[in-house]
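Dear Dr. H.,

I hope your travels went smoothly. While you were away I took the liberty of generating a structure for the chain from your last submission, since the lab meeting agenda had it listed for discussion. I wanted you to have the full record in hand beforehand rather than looking at slides cold. The sequence, exactly as received, is reproduced here:
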Amino acid sequence: MVAGPTDDHDCSNAVSVPLHRFVEADSNRQIGAIVDTIVSELSPVTETCVWLFDSSEKRLASVGTQEEGRESPSAVAAEAFETGEPQYPVEPIDWPVEIAYPLGTVGAVALTTDEITPAVQETLGRLSTVAGACLERNREYTQLEGRFHQIAERNRRLSPFARTVSHDLNSPLSVIYGRIELSLAEPDNADIHLQAALNAAQRVDSLITDHLQTIETADADADTELVSVQTVATEAWRIIDPSMARLRIEPQLDRVEANAIRLQQLFENLIRNAIEHGSEESVGLASAVDDSGSPPSVFDDDTNTVTVTIKPTPTGFAVCDDGPGIPEDEHDEIFESGYTTTESGSGLGLHIVDEIVESHGWEVSVTTSDGGGARFNIHVE
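The corresponding predicted structure, in token form, is as follows:
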């Protein structure tokens, strides 16, 4: 059983506790230093040490001037912190002794003294109440401030996130509207048009699910798996349902470790970018390979359309087109959010591509394709 002071001395020699200094202190470390100074001024005290809980390291750390840097608290100081009760030595007492008082739920002050006087006990009691309350206030403020910064950062990302969602949904929604109109205008082909509309509607559902998961797990890594570049690229093309371009996919495309939904978004945006900047007339969808099993050649026709080619590279894959290309002095700017060269463009497509590449730990570079258009090299190794 712990024992307190047994004498009945007057408490008039207790050191005053300057409340204003605690209130004005900017940090818990400053409060700890004030406590250390006050206790050190008590005449019977020979050593002091203030311990405050370090939430980052999950342990008590010393902040007192006399023993700063001490690795771990004494058993008495640890007991005062854990129990929230003053700790005195068990009788019989062998002087000098160590006693400790809790500082709220944030720390403890330990001291070595030749005598446990009423003045020491009174001062420690006041410090435990006043300094403890201020330490707890600062801890709550720090937690609130951290939460505020988290919310502010989350809100900061909401605006571009909303633009990304709108941009991703625009293409399949356009397909749905267009195909429904065609099914009404061409009753004989209604089944084909309605199936394409259904595929686009399923893509909308997939995008919504993906974006909801992005919100819920904003700080988590996206799930990845080995996926077929050819399969994902073809699916992206079908969802876009372009009426003013053709697709050419070369064989020997390797599988890559990727999030399939995000990879499809990458292809959708690169293909859409090629179409928006290079197409004028409709030629439709080309198959990935011909009857002989070889990839189709670049189409030789008189229509002013764009052909999108996806080909393997030593470090990944490339998405090429035979459109007007991108001026070399703009290569570093095209991935910036809002950058566009068309009146109807949102300037988000290539920015989204850059974000997807970065989230996978890949790299993207821009060059000129063999057809004089743009070539986006995705380096996955």
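Two observations you may find useful: The chain has eight helices and eleven strands. Helices lie at 19-24, 28-40, 75-83, 118-185, 190-216, 229-240, 260-278, 349-359.

With kind regards,
E. W.
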